[in-house]
Amino acid sequence: MQLKLKWLTKSVAFLPAPVNTGVLVQQGKAVVVDTGLDKDHANKILKALEAENLTPVAIVNTHSHADHCGGNAQLQHKRDLPVFAPRLEKPFIEAPYLEAFGLFGAAHPPAALQNKFLKAKPSQVTGIFEPEDQFWQWEDFQVSLVPLPGHSPQQTGILYEGVLFAADVLLGADYLDKHLIPFNSDVVRHRESLNRLKKMAVDWCVPAHGIPMEDHLPAVERNLNALDLIDQWILSNTGQPATLDHLLSQFCSHHGVAMETITQYHLYRTTFAAHASGLVETGNLSHRVLDGGLVWEVTPRSST
């Protein structure tokens, strides 16, 4: 089935899919924001643009996860499009092996962890930007950059003509209710990003997964609550020293979260590690090596 662009304004559209693709338009030219998981989605992007008589001129990746940059290679192969991405995300887009490598503790990952959901086809990043640069300019396009780190090191929101493509800073209630563990690599920075988003006024907020929102504040609160749930679980279960694997296993068992594959395990475990690290950063948790293992425990509060 051919996907069709859905227009939010006269110059901004999106292609609805498991990962939404943004389309920014000027005088018949289009900048593509995130390219989906693979070449199949990339081909759907090209067909949808052709149906609207739009010529793609560039790709912007909000971050380096495979479901956001997996279509880059096909679009570069077919249209030789330049790719622009945040500086810290560039190495992972060009060498997708690094994603599974990092998840597996910087050791060579087994084949089961090198799947297309974690390892996109490599593509060449033409230019980089810093989210703090505020603007990205290409031909006639001037795009506002919104720093939204936390889900990945330098995830960047793309704001154009009142429409914010917010990447994975927001997840839908359906996903959060089912999985309970939103993937993040830095929970402190992710909280800051959600609070930054809370203060922003935009006409539309387009999450990577889900439908566009005219009012994104309820979604922000729901995502903050998801972080609180995990933080509170960790703090409530580290009165005695506990390993990260124990905390994760007990959380999943208690809340009925399925964890059946090596991919699920490493995504969830990385997220729990990010929560633990964040709680150390805020002074609520401590870590030490005990009996040959790394354990976490609530930081004692001074009585004075």
Strand and helix map with partners:
Elements: E1 6-7, E2 12-15, E3 21-26, E4 29-33, H1 39-51, E5 55-60, H2 66-69, H3 72-79, E6 83-86, H4 90-94, H5 97-103, E7 127-129, E8 135-138, E9 141-147, E10 156-160, E11 163-167, H6 173-179, H7 187-198, E12 204-207, H8 217-236, H9 244-255, H10 262-281, E13 285-290, E14 293-298
Parallel strand pairs: 4-5, 5-6, 6-7, 11-12
Antiparallel strand pairs: 1-2, 2-3, 3-4, 8-9, 9-10, 10-11, 13-14
Report on this structure:
It is a single chain. The protein is globular. The model has no long low-confidence stretch (mean pLDDT 96). The chain folds into two domains: 6-168, Ribonuclease Z/Hydroxyacylglutathione hydrolase-like (Metallo-beta-lactamase, Chain A, 4-Layer Sandwich), CATH 3.60.15; 229-298, Arc Repressor Mutant, subunit A, CATH 1.10.10. It starts with 5 loop residues before the first strand and ends in a 6-residue tail after the last strand. The protein contains ten helices and 14 strands. A hairpin with a 5-residue loop joins strand 2 (12-15) and strand 3 (21-26). The protein has 304 residues and is α/β, with parallel strands linked by helices. The protein has helices spanning 39-51, 66-69, 72-79, 90-94, 97-103, 173-179, 187-198, 217-236, 244-255, 262-281, and strands at 6-7, 12-15, 21-26, 29-33, 55-60, 83-86, 127-129, 135-138, 141-147, 156-160, 163-167, 204-207, 285-290, 293-298.
